[in-house]
Amino acid sequence: MRITVFLGAPGSGKGTQAKMLSQRERFVHLSTGDILRNAIKEGTALGKEAKTFMDKGELVPDSTMIGLIKDTLSQLKPNQHVILDGFPRTVAQAEALNTNSDTHVDQAILFEIADSLLIERLTGRRVCKQCGQPFHTKHIRPKQDGVCDQCGGEVVQRSDDHEDVVRRRLEIFHAQNKGLVDYYAKKQNLRRINVDQPADSVQQILMELLK
């Protein structure tokens, strides 16, 4: 089994690209959010352990997250290629993954894009309050301002897409991400990709890197 980590700021398209890849037969997209939700829903021992921390508003410990990832990987086929999205977030987490043969990372791919473009992408996002249909002030505008094309519901901006919040999220990302980028660069398994281009073009480049 091969494991690739996607690194990139909020809005860089990691999740979108991972989902596109997961539609191909051999790729599996694992996001930490999905792993946690599934474990809690199924009531596994590690899921219950994670929930005790989440209910208190605390971060789930690395050891628990590694255990959850190992459990998830053990259910997959040996010939599958796993895309990890949202983990690791720290060098300690990256080292914990690599010290276990079952979770050893083959490569990390860094999604590179200017902060100014990310801010434009994220602050322009809008969503229908009723049905969740996504819109964008620049790229996917509703036919009638503030009204969803699908259901007629109100189209709004989410609170975490306000510019001050977006800038803070990017600051946190850069502070955390530098150590990870340096870590994988020293391991000589870091790849960089410019994602300021159409999603289909990014997907083609990824397919070459993931051969």
What attributes characterize this protein structure?
5-stranded parallel sheet, Rossmann fold, 45% helix
The CA-CA distance between the termini, in Å, is 13 Å
Oligomer kind: single chain
Structural class: alpha/beta
CATH topology (level 3) name: Rossmann fold
At the fourth level of CATH, the homologous superfamily is: P-loop containing nucleotide triphosphate hydrolases
Mean pLDDT: 93
Radius of gyration: 18 Å
Weakly predicted, low-confidence segments:
none
Order of helices and strands: EHEHHHEHEHEEEHEH
Write down the overall geometry: globular
How many separate domains?
Answer: 1
Query: What kind of sheet is the major sheet?
Result: 5 strands, parallel
Which architecture would the CATH scheme give at its second level?
A: 3-Layer(aba) Sandwich
Q: If helices are DSSP runs of H or I spanning 4 or more residues, what is the number of helices?
A: 8
CATH class: Alpha Beta
Q: How many E-type strands?
A: 8
Trace the largest sheet across and list its strands. 2-3-1-4-8
Helix amount:
40-55%
Task: Outline the structure in words.
- The protein contains eight helices and eight strands.
- By secondary structure, the chain is α/β, with parallel strands linked by helices.
- The protein has a single domain, classed as P-loop containing nucleotide triphosphate hydrolases (Rossmann fold, 3-Layer(aba) Sandwich), CATH 3.40.50.
- The strands form two sheets. The chain has a five-stranded parallel β-sheet, with helices on both faces.
- α2 (about 30-40) crosses α3 (about 45-55), α2 (about 30-40) packs across α4 and α6 (about 115-125) packs across α7.
- The protein is globular, with a radius of gyration of 18 Å.
